[in-house]
Amino acid sequence: MTIETKTMDKLIHGTAAEGSIRVLSAVTTDLVREAARRHNTSPTATAAFGRVLTGTILLAATQKDFDRFSVKIESDGPIGGIVAEATPGGTVRGYVRDPLADLPPNENGKFDVASIVGKGTFYVIRESGFDIGLHQEPYIGSVPIVSGEIAEDFAFYLAKSEQIPSAVLLGVLLQNTEPFISCSGGVLVQILPGANEHLITMIEDTIAHSPQVTSLINDGAGPEELLQSVLGVIDYEILGEQDLQFSCNCSKERAIALISSLGNSEVESMLKEDKGAIMDCGFCNESYQLDESDLRAMLND
Ligand code: ZN
Q1: Distance from residue 255's CA to the centre of ligand 1 (Å)
Q2: Residues 193 and 279 in one domain
Q3: Is residue 7 a contact partner of residue 242, using CB atoms and an 8 Å limit?
Q4: Å from CA of 93 to ligand 1 middle
Q5: Which residues of the chain have pLDDT under 70?
Q6: Which residue of 86, 95, 109, 138 has the smallest Cβ count within 10 Å?
Q7: 158: three-class secondary structure by DSSP
Q8: What separation in Å is there between the alpha carbon of 45 and the centre of ligand 1?
Q9: Rounded to an integer, what distance in angstroms lies between the CA atom of residue 284 and that of residue 82?
């Protein structure tokens, strides 16, 4: 059994300017709500976490042939680190090291994501080979955190590690009443080799003059409207769409397998001291309770 929630979240991908620009956009409101609910993240942590979840989904959708695509931020700010893992099926899961870390707004009155993240390293990990039962050597790329505001860090990674000039917009809009997350989403624009440089200036100019992604989503925009707002008058073609959701592949069976792997003496001491065991999944915060009979069954196996 996997843990899933039904959502309206969606990603679209396409090309623009005769294939010289790759564009992706996503509405991630429900999955960010689910992630924040499960991990009970503070408002500033929610803004940081939501941006990383959304950016990871967008970046994963530009990759070919992977089974798991992760972004890991290891940093010295109060949040300590952020992890998001996406699958080709449009699911994502993740966590932050200190979900309760919070900070007052920055001088612009916005969530101080840069300060809660701090300085550190931005990792991208692409794993494949799961289908043939082999974990091939993963691809790991890393760059220093240049901003901590997350979108700039994704753009810096793309420019530095993949040599793709990109515009990345990520946003989470919060409010004081339930549901605390009004909306969440993002856009990724990649300028492919050979693109007219004039296009880059045009897109930068359009982005500078268009409303924020979150205010568009809050007004009812879907992924296509987000693309239009970034591309302005540039022609585009949508090549595909995908439903998105927060989903974790943990299960009671996996919890049992993990505890069994600790060995008989460990299981015996759990039986004696606690008459059971509790396993919490770090990625989705689901708690699995194993009782005496579960532990005895392990010993008999
Ligand atoms: Zn889980």
Answers
A1: 10
A2: no
A3: no
A4: 8
A5: 1-7, 135
A6: 109
A7: helix
A8: 19
A9: 13
Same domain, 187 and 238: yes
Please tell me the distance between residue 47's alpha carbon and the centre of ligand 1 in angstroms: 21
- What CATH number should be reported for the domain holding residue 281? 3.90.1280.10
- Cα 280 to ligand 1 centroid, rounded to whole Å: 8
Lookup: tokens for 188: 């990724």
Could you tell me if 185 and 49 lie in one domain?
yes
Q: Domain range for residue 180?
A: 3-248
Distance (Å, whole) CA 194 – CA 183: 35
The confidence score (pLDDT) of residue 130 equals 80
Q: What percent of the chain has pLDDT over 70?
A: 97
pLDDT score at 300: 83
Indicate which CATH number applies to the domain containing 90: 3.55.30.10
- pLDDT attached to residue 1: 41
96-134 in b/e burial notation, b at 16+ Cβ within 10 A? bbebebbbeeeeeeebbbbbbbbebebbbbbbbeeeeee
Summarize pLDDT for 19-32 with one digit per residue, the tens.
999 999 999 999 99
pLDDT of 110-126, one tens digit each? 999 999 999 999 999 99
pLDDT for the residue 178: 87
**CA 35–ligand 1 middle distance (angstroms):** 11
Measuring CA to CA, which residue among 210, 185, 190 is closest to residue 200?
190
